């Protein structure tokens, strides 16, 4: 932990972040850590602590982040060519989260909320229509979904058995030991079995 506080570590980190050969990988990783991992944990803490102000802050962040991500997906091929794009994205994600800047709240209140209020009826009809179609699809494909569920459960059970046997086995010379117990005949995945 003392290494993180030392000026050498900061210099090395900054050089790695700005170096052309490693900048893309490191800045993309930093964007995921700052843009997703940290907010997921912070959202979890806000929910666990029943902190309404924190919940609102993170809900606004996720709304802004989601819109930004959708725009980024469509513009990715173009944005990729801009030098230091991921560095700018990282700075933007940090700005969204900083309590001093209150970036997510600003973006939400000034850009996203007016847009959503203006187009609320259209979005509601699309969401309701999509939900209805999904419900119809699920109801009309119950047998197939049940078959997939049974197959997945049996596969998971077999995998757990293999892992369990591997961890309790003292014989490390046979890494495939336990694979013979995986059911593989055609009757294994019949959909008339009870779960």
UniProtKB/TrEMBL annotation:
Localization (cell): Membrane
Protein topology in the membrane: Multi-pass membrane protein
Region (Disordered): 166-195
Recorded GO CC terms: membrane
Entry-linked Pfam families: TB2_DP1_HVA22
Major localization class: membrane
Composition bias type Polar residues, residue spans: 166-179
Protein family according to the UniProt entry: Belongs to the DP1 family.
PANTHER family on file: HVA22-LIKE PROTEIN, HVA22-LIKE PROTEINS
Protein name from the UniProt record: HVA22-like protein
Organism: Ceratopteris richardii (Triangle waterfern)
